[in-house]
TrEMBL record:
GO terms for molecular function: lyase activity. Keywords: Lyase. SUPFAM superfamilies: PLP-binding barrel (SSF51419). It holds the Pfam family Ala_racemase_N. The keyword Lyase applies. The keyword Lyase applies. PANTHER family: D-SERINE DEAMINASE (PTHR28004:SF8), ZGC:162816-RELATED (PTHR28004). SMART domains: D-ser_dehydrat. This is Amino acid deaminase. Belongs to the DSD1 family. Residues 309-401 form the D-serine dehydratase-like domain.
Length: 418
């Protein structure tokens, strides 16, 4: 069996030497290869602030939990790689049984291919002529490479076909017709138009109709009855349409499923026939905010809950008012789009110091912490919301043996490409 990712390319990341390019890496480690840091296990206290870390135990737990769920539900999993853009973490997901890796755009696709990811889904339309020429060459040079992309209009299918013919593509490109919903994102709104688009794809000599795709998360932002009802109606529409199209493969796929409603995707699309492919990506890191509240595992699905694997660490740099402290982490360092950072404890003082505290605002480089028992120089551990806008701010992320320990140690460093 062909490997799902180039293990040698991933292992080679351990040869990269640390220096000033990487935020929060102490000068004492400059010049040292990443692999040596794994062996020396420097303490968290050696690292600067602001800092984002990952927790080794939580990562392992989350990968196992999702893999176990997908296996029990009879669905495949192609985790959305955009969440982490970290081949080291993709490798964990693939080794745990993932069907492939999903990406969102051409730059992400190139990262995945640079690390030899064998099966990739582009959850988007690839219309860039230069990108399609590169793809055609990549498919011809690597016969083991499996790729599927989406289209949501005859024009997009025609542009793909035109560029691939110009590039003298030797292999047909697999595509899924994308179905959208009212006020959602991309995707065909009308089922008749979807059928006509399928005909257009089948008529294109460089394309092959391989399935149906969609994203239910654009239709609901909470797990209320109304939100789940909208998701359910959309998925039933997908299921009905999936069974009525003629595919150019014996194993068509139907794909949906972010990290919020994958249980409904498995339940509804599981009876549609074909291979159901979930694209959940945030689960591997999870969070202490948005996904903690909306994840199906938090709503009683499965046999375990996910654990937040990411934390922020910020230092008190000012106490200009009695109830106000300024931390040295802001929008350039930590996520804020799905909720502000949440103080969890103060190093050396415990959770009591921030029991009544909250972060009320963030600037580019500062967070406003109110009602905390802290002094200038204290380091605050922060719970975070939304991994997709957390990891993108860091090119190298320390992995802790246990973020909840009194003296956490850094046991690995994860490289990202955003």
């Amino acid at each position: 069996m062909v490997a799902s990712i180039d293990a040698e390319a991933v292992d080679a990341l351990g040869e990269e030497r640390l220096d000033w390019r990487f935020k929060a890496i102490p000068a004492s480690l400059h010049g040292m290869p990443v692999a040596d840091v794994r062996d020396t296990r420097p303490p968290l206290d050696d690292f600067g602030t602001p800092l984002l870390t990952l927790d080794a135990g939580a990562l392992d737990h989350n990968v196992r939990t999702m893999a176990r769920y997908a296996d029990a539900a009879g669905v495949a999993l192609a985790p959305h790689g955009k969440t982490t853009m970290a081949p080291q973490l993709w490798r964990r997901q693939l080794e745990a049984g993932a069907w492939g890796i999903t990406v969102a755009n051409l730059p992400q696709l190139r990262v995945a291919r640079a690390f030899g990811v064998r099966r990739i889904m582009l959850a988007n339309a690839l219309l860039d002529p230069a990108g399609l020429a590169w793809l055609a060459a990549e498919l011809e040079e690597h016969p083991e490479f499996e790729f599927v992309s989406w289209v949501d209009s005859p024009r997009s299918a025609e542009l793909m076909d035109e560029a691939l013919r110009l590039a003298r593509a030797q292999r047909r490109v697999d595509v899924c017709v994308e179905i959208g919903g009212p006020h959602g994102r991309t995707g065909v709104r009308d089922d008749g138009d979807a059928r006509a688009l399928a005909d257009t794809v089948r008529a294109a000599p460089t394309l092959r109709l391989t399935g149906l795709a969609g994203y239910e998360g654009a239709l609901a932002h909470d797990a209320s009855d109304e939100g789940r009802g909208a998701v359910d109606a959309y998925l039933r529409r997908m299921a009905n349409l999936f069974g009525g199209l003629d595919y150019e493969t014996d194993e068509p796929i139907v794909t949906a499923g972010g990290s919020s409603f994958f249980d409904q995707v498995a339940d509804v699309l599981g009876g549609a026939g074909g291979q159901v492919v979930l694209r959940s990506g945030a689960y591997i890191v999870h969070d202490d905010g948005f996904y903690r509240e909306i994840s199906p595992f938090s709503r009683g699905v499965g046999d375990a809950r996910l654990r937040s694997a990411m934390h922020g660490w910020a230092r008190v740099v000012s106490r200009p008012e009695p109830a106000l402290a300024l931390l040295d982490a802001g929008k350039r360092d930590l996520p804020f789009d799905e909720g502000l950072p949440m103080p969890q404890l103060v190093r050396g003082k415990g959770a009591e110091a921030v029991e009544k505290a909250s972060v009320t605002a963030v600037n580019d480089q500062h967070a406003f912490l109110v009602d905390a028992s802290v002094e200038v120089g204290d380091v605050v551990k922060l719970g975070l919301s939304h991994p997709c806008t957390a990891l993108d701010k860091w090119t190298l992320i320390p992995v802790l043996d246990d973020a909840g320990a009194d003296q956490p140690a850094v046991i690995d460093l994860v490289r990202t490409w955003f």
